[in-house]
Design brief:
This protein is mainly α. It has one domain. It is 34% helix and 0% strand. The longest helix is centred in the first third of the chain and has 10 residues. The protein is globular, with a radius of gyration of 15 Å. The mean pLDDT is 83.
Length: 102
Amino acid sequence: MSFSWADQNKNGEVDITDASNLAFCFGATSQAAASASCQAEGATAYAYWQRNAFESTAGTIGTGEVAILQAHLGDNYVAPFSWNPTSLKLICPTHRPVHSDC
């Protein structure tokens, strides 16, 4: 679960966009109490990033979530390949599509 969770924008790679989205919500204890930047990410931004199993303080987005994302930063779903080669066109995850051809 941690790779697919860390890839918040579901582009097949845990990248700086995912990290910045988590950073916007760091320290939040609810969607209503989240920063304006976190709220601008959408009505479910807090609910997406907040995971009690990863937290030292239940309900607060903190270092546990950051550590999980950091461990996967730079990971790619099909690395070292890319989605561009024709030979990989039909490779699709069974749990959630990350590419428009799936």
